[in-house]
Amino acid sequence: MAVRAPVSASGRLLEGFRKWYYNAAGFNKLGLMRDDTLYENDDVKAALKRLPENAYNERLFRIKRALDLSMKQQILPEEQWVKYEEDKKYLEPYLKEVIRERLEREEWDKK
After folding, report:
1. In the 8-state DSSP scheme, what is residue 85?
2. Is 39 domain-assigned?
């Protein structure tokens, strides 16, 4: 029992740090989600093509709104900020699949 207490305390500390860092990064104040800020390399571009149309359109809307706010040097009202708990990694399943396929293809090409 005594061993578990420090683990859960460190877990809570780590979770608190994640929330702090998420808010400190500032992209949520522009209405962006974490996956909206990924660098678009070949894998990310392929994953974006696999997104459902409505998810892709929502992503474009968030990015355009963020660009507009950035140009005006404004941020969204606090009630419209994306919260840490609400941020879902919508692109991650598609990205993992693309990377898995690329690695499989590279392994196949080696043979």
Report:
1. T
2. yes
pTM for this model (two decimals): 0.82
Cα gap 28→16, rounded to integer Å: 16
What is the count of structural domains for the chain? 1
Q: Would 1 be classed as within a structural domain? A: no
| CA-based max dimension of the chain | 56
User: pLDDT tens across 87-111, in order?
Assistant: 999 999 999 999 999 999 999 998 7
Domain that holds residue 15: 8-110
Between CA 79 and CA 92 the distance in angstroms is: 26
Would 13 be classed as within a structural domain?
yes
Burial label, 47 (beta-carbon count in 10 A; 0-12, 13-18, 19+): buried
- Close Cβ partners of 48 (under 8 Å, ≥ 6 residues apart): 40, 56, 59, 91, 94
